[in-house]
């Protein structure tokens, strides 16, 4: 369980969880009383590509912290990304990211409005493994 002290919110590493999308998520900030924004740390293991999906009504940004990857966003050619890159994904656009490096690909997923599970739509043509 994470804790919030005043204006400082400290997520706990033990709260990281694996998603059907194929990556690990640690919710940094996602609260019903602050519906305008959510922030999560995403971690994609070496050699993994997340499932093609979209977020209904939610724009997302990936701020790459470490590792290297190849991001696909509906409507633009796939692009390589690395530390410091920020990827903007408009609401309702197909998206996925592949880890092309030797270690974990780690990034912040910043959603506006905040991420809610019912907004996640798996549009990958391949069945989940």
Automatic annotation (TrEMBL):
InterPro entries: Cupin_2, PKS_Associated_Protein, RmlC-like_jellyroll, RmlC_Cupin_sf. It comes from the Bacteria. Residues 57-110 form the Cupin type-2 domain. SUPFAM superfamilies: RmlC-like cupins. CDD domains: cupin_MJ1618. This is Cupin 2 conserved barrel domain protein. The lineage of its organism: Bacteria, Pseudomonadati, Pseudomonadota, Gammaproteobacteria, Chromatiales.
